[in-house]
Amino acid sequence: MKKILFLIVLGSVLSCKQKITDADISNLNGYWEIEKVELPDGDKKEYKVNETIDFFKIDGNKGIRKKVMPQLDGTYLTNDIQEDIVIAVKDGDATIQYKTTYASWKEEIIELTKDKLVVKNEQDLEYHYKRPVKFSVK
């Protein structure tokens, strides 16, 4: 009985993860605002206001990620600092491999749609992103 229960729980946990395809990767392009971080112990850190937003530009399986700062007029301030990235997709699993002059690391893509991005890093921190809503003064 315990084995059956374990298999049911394991199946439901594994089914929560989206199968990522090469076609899904184009959804990564554009601006992403962090919404929350889920810690390995189940705790969550909510982000109400973000000073920086991630910008991804992907062509094929390679691209960049930059941190940009939203401005009151709806534009973004940026600098020349960027991370080179490579997307690896295999059997429905996808990772983003980052590289800078000083470090390299990777994140697993858990979910990716046109409006939602969830990635998990090597420390089991799960980052939930949404598309930012442009601020305007009207």
Describe the model.
This protein is mainly beta. The chain contains one helix and ten strands; from the N terminus they run H-E-E-E-E-E-E-E-E-E-E. An eight-stranded antiparallel barrel has the order 1-3-4-6-7-8-9-10. A hairpin with a 4-residue loop joins strand 7 (93-99) and strand 8 (104-112). It starts with a helix and ends in an 8-residue tail after the last strand.
List segments where confidence is low: pLDDT < 50 over at least 5 consecutive residues: none
The radius of gyration is: 17 Å
Query: What are the secondary-structure elements, in order, as H or E?
Result: HEEEEEEEEEE
First-to-last CA distance? 62 Å
Percent of residues in β-strands: over 45%
The helix/strand class is: mainly beta
Individual helix count:
1
Strand order of the largest sheet: 1-3-4-6-7-8-9-10
Give the fraction of residues assigned to helices: 10-25%
Q: Mean pLDDT, as a whole number?
A: 88
Shape: globular
Per DSSP E runs of 2 or more residues, the count of β-strands stands at 10
What composes the largest sheet? 8 strands, antiparallel, barrel
